[in-house]
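Homework help thread (please don't just give me the answer)

Our assignment gives two proteins as sequence + structure token strings and asks us to describe the second one. The first is just a warm-up. Here they are:
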Amino acid sequence: MAHRSGWSRLFSGAALAVTAGLAAAGCTSGPASTSAGSASGTATAPALSAAQARQVFDAYVATSDQATRTGDATLALSDVTGAQWAYVSATFKANAYFHVRAPYENYVYASPVLYLPEAAGYPRAFVVAVHRALAGSPPRQDMATWVAGVEEPVDGTVLMVFQQASATAPWQLASTSQLAAGMSLPPMAADVSGQVQALAMSQAALLSRPDVVGPLQAAVVDEGPASPAARVVASGPLTTGLYQAARGSDLGIGLRVPWGDVRQWDLDGSNYTKFALRTADGGALVFYAMYLNTTVAVPGVLNDSPIRPGPRIAIPDPLLPLLPAGATAPHVSLEGQELLSFAAVDPPAGGGKIRVIAIGGGLTYASAS
């Protein structure tokens, strides 16, 4: 069943009073964590050249293209890791369930812009900003897709995080997030070789520590513009917009609420690697992943009262591939979980509000009882 996020609990109620002082100093709530590409007690990684990063990107594009043309899930999964692995795996599972035959839809990419990490410990990562378009389709303004109920054009600029876990590990795509409508990538603090300082997730000289950006976003998505977190998180399609989408619909999953049942959503943290790069104004561009849970259930599941089975809860098509074979409509609860990749701009202290600018991912898990 869905549960209230530990992040949301940390920043709910009186605890959110600390956000009033975030503009004056970096938030120090929560445990420190290490960003990909920052020192982590492992051997120092050599500097990554633009030519090497471009080879990694080109190899990924070639592998992805072949996998989507042939329907080879094993090949597709060999080039991804982390949140991207979970999403690609779920996508191939859905294609198999609905008997979708290859070639699958794929993207073509323009010339990429590379943001490279300074030499540091493993794991390390670099970022690609690139415009992509659906292969074989001329751009049309009415072509769109939806992620967590947020409408995005099919064609757009994406931020791709490639990660290397160790000196002997391959470079793999860890996440892809697309800039939301009206959002743009901030200028980065890159030198002439494209290198950008990778920041520790506990960095304090910002509006908020990078490891607190996700929890603050989650508080706004869960509680709306009335949340105290909205003092430091800007409204937009991926904050207050996600809240409004959740209030007014089913976040694109298709869950219907039978009479007498209730629906709940919550944005939860994940253990996937977080990563932050320095922006030109002294802030940070933060990459992270979270789970968006949407649950329909009898009241007792969500409020600790006696659980009594209710009417049948219809299983929407997108959840069918993620449930055991032969699953029937449950009478107690049905949950859909989306694993979402985000990119957010964490400004320097006094530099405005946190802006969540990009989103990616989709459904990766479902449960029923």
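The one we have to describe:
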Amino acid sequence: MTRVVVALLVLLTGAAPPAQSPGSRLLVLNKTDATLSIIDPLSGTTTAVVPTGPDPHEVTTSADGRLAIATSYSGNALSVVDIAARRETQRVALPDLRQPHGIETVGGIAVFTAEGNRALAGYDPAANRIAWRMATEQDGTHMVTASRDGRTLFLSNLGSNTITILERDGEGWRRTHIPVGSGPEGLDLSPDGRELWTAHSGDGDVSVIDVGAKKVVHRINAKTKRSNRLKFTRDGRYALISDLDAGELVVVDAKTRAIARRLRLGSMPEGILIPPAGDRVYVAVTGENRVVAIDVNTLTIVQTIQTGRGPDGMAWAAAR
């Protein structure tokens, strides 16, 4: 993109373009179309649309940044997409791991939940095989996130109303289940690693868990109608919650625990992406087939990107 075009974008949006490296790509899953959109975030232009398995929900990138790995929820499969080649290179069948959903790369392994099995599994893209699996013993194991060193995993269990903490213990994992509110779904670890926040889709609250103590230390009445995802901004100042039924992004001040703003986004906001650099966050507005970029300093919408039908899970492919 030339400097002239960038300057024109600044004039049109009224804000500086995001401080992202040229060549980075925004990856967006379109659930209804069963596709992955590869998007230039600076211009908002879709550069490729790649077919995936049916009903793709969440996506991560491989440790080397070459691959996108997406869960196919109703297809019981993983779609492995070569980002540069813009094509699906593997459709990994999961005949005994049903309803794969949340996914995150941890130490070179794509760790994903298998909601229908009350399980967690790890896919090794280098070997193209399932490296391990383990039972969670909780209903509706839905989303997964990890500590920075990858030695602790956190799972939200929609049906059991719990958060599971898995800690490395020799060659295995030590498991702790923490009761929270109704329907925990979105979750994220604070940047300092001390707190795990989860938004309850069933009662509108947020549980704040002290990771060291492994217990809920605070409960926030966020008054969401149906929370979907929760993510911290990179500086830890805000926790952002997508409220699917209210059509809002709820912004919580992480220090005071107070609601800082409710930002109207449109029909069915779902996935939230925090890129590794820059001053923007991305929210998928599923019911309107678009993604909006929000300036975290002003908490205003600065860009709208059209996608395929039913955008939800997103990932960031850094420039290589």
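TA reply:
I won't write it for you, but here's a hint about the kind of observation we're looking for: Confidence is low (pLDDT under 50) at residues 1-19.
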